[in-house]
Design goal:
Domain SET: 50-315
Distance between the termini: 22 Å
Pfam families: SET (PF00856)
GO cellular component, one term: nucleus
Largest sheet: 4 strands, antiparallel
Protein name: Histone-lysine N-methyltransferase ATXR4 isoform X1
Radius of gyration: 20 Å
Number of helices: 10
Strand order of the largest sheet: 1-4-10-9
CATH topology of the largest domain: Beta-clip-like
Order of helices and strands: HEEEEEHHHHHHEHEEEEEHH
Number of strands: 11
CATH superfamily of the largest domain: SET domain
Bound molecules: zinc ion
InterPro entries: H3K4_H4K5_MeTrfase, SET_dom, SET_dom_sf
Number of domains: 2
Strand content: 5-15%
Shape: globular
CATH architecture of the largest domain: Beta Complex
């Protein structure tokens, strides 16, 4: 993100990038099958790594640059979330893992996830396919052992969505599937004092929930510290994407994405690694779309030259200059100096 000030060496970045699964972009067919950013069953039309590299910019920390010319409309790459979670209003309307909307074929298959009953947690969630059940085991087997009523109510009553993502990540970490520093590569937000107080309350609730469940105390004590909670939430706050599913086909993307602006159709939120490295521009040359699940698709909005930086717009680009500057300063902590802002538009 533009406000990134934490510098990393190229080799460190490369190592991090290797851990992230960036799918090569299929050009003519965009499959949205769960768990298959690169099109399960479709032969890749252009094998090889995506045409981007992450490097330091002159003034805005990390950025994403084209390694070859990219054509307008081209799918640059796909990215799977590090953590995703349905929004409270869509909790049982979308897949609990990939956020795909429940279709007519919907069935509750969470009971089958570990082949036993749900014990003290009678809540069932929808998983759209076996390919979402399998990776969900890494958080769900921990999650289902605890009673989340208090924590979930706390989030729902206050309209909080990010603590639900922290809850999911905590379950993934406690299960041993991912390291506790999974989101450390992301730039953290500077948190105001009142946010810190709110977080202490959320943290106490999260800890209480785990303690009541029969989970190993030592493990929770080791992983789930207040500092961990604050570190994670500070990163999720500034890097989470609101997911609005476009649906339909690859060809419909431009028109559908425009139609979604301003409507409240967010099915959930997610954080990604590479998409978080894109800097902001009020007149962007790239954008992120979601077809029918939480896999982010980075698309070129116009022709991009080799070596050019790819930038996305973090906010509603139709706002005027003052409104944009205000929201970028308050929400993202930087003053925008893009060409559009400098021109006074
Ligand atoms: Zn799914
Ligand atoms: Zn700007």
């Amino acid at each position: 993100m533009l406000c990134a000030v934490r510098r990393r060496t190229t080799s460190e970045l490369r190592r991090m990038l290797c851990r992230q699964n960036i799918n090569p972009p299929p050009l003519r067919s965009v499959s949205t099958a769960a768990g298959a950013g690169a099109g399960a069953g479709d032969p890749p039309t252009r094998p090889g790594p995506p045409p981007i590299r992450v490097a330091l910019t002159e003034s805005a920390g990390r950025g994403v640059f084209a390694t070859r010319a990219i054509g307008a409309g081209e799918l640059v790459h796909s990215a799977k979330p590090l953590v995703a979670h349905p929004s409270p209003s869509h909790l049982r309307k979308v897949c609990y893992y990939c956020l795909r909307k429940k279709g007519s074929e919907a069935s509750l298959i969470s009971d089958e996830i570990a082949g036993e009953d749900l014990g003290s947690n009678p809540t069932s969630y929808y998983f759209c396919s076996e390919s979402c059940v399998e990776p969900s085991k890494i958080f769900y087997e921990v999650e289902r052992r605890a009673d989340w009523a208090l924590y979930d109510d706390h989030c729902r009553l206050r309209g909080l969505k990010y603590p639900l993502m922290v809850k999911r990540l905590a379950c993934m970490v406690i299960s041993g599937a991912v390291p506790a520093d999974t989101v450390d590569i992301l730039q953290p937000a500077t948190l105001p004092q009142e946010a810190l107080l709110e977080m202490e309350e959320e943290f106490a609730l999260l800890r209480h929930t785990f303690k009541k469940a029969s989970l190993q105390d030592e493990l929770i004590a080791l992983v789930l510290t207040k500092q961990w909670y604050i570190n994670v939430l500070a990163r999720i706050r500034i890097n989470a994407f609101r997911i609005e599913l476009v649906g339909g086909s690859h060809e419909d993307l431009f028109t559908s994405a425009a139609a979604l602006v301003g409507s409240d159709v967010s099915v959930g939120n997610a954080v990604y690694m590479v998409p978080s490295f894109y800097n902001h521009d009020c007149d962007p040359n790239a954008h992120i779309v979601w077809l029918d699940n939480a896999d982010a698709k980075l698309k070129a909005l116009r022709d991009i030259e080799e070596g050019e930086e790819l930038r996305i717009c973090y906010i509603d680009a139709s706002m005027n200059l003052d409104a944009r500057q205000k929201i970028l300063a308050e929400g993202f902590g930087f003053q925008c100096n893009c060409l559009r802002c400098l021109s006074g538009d």
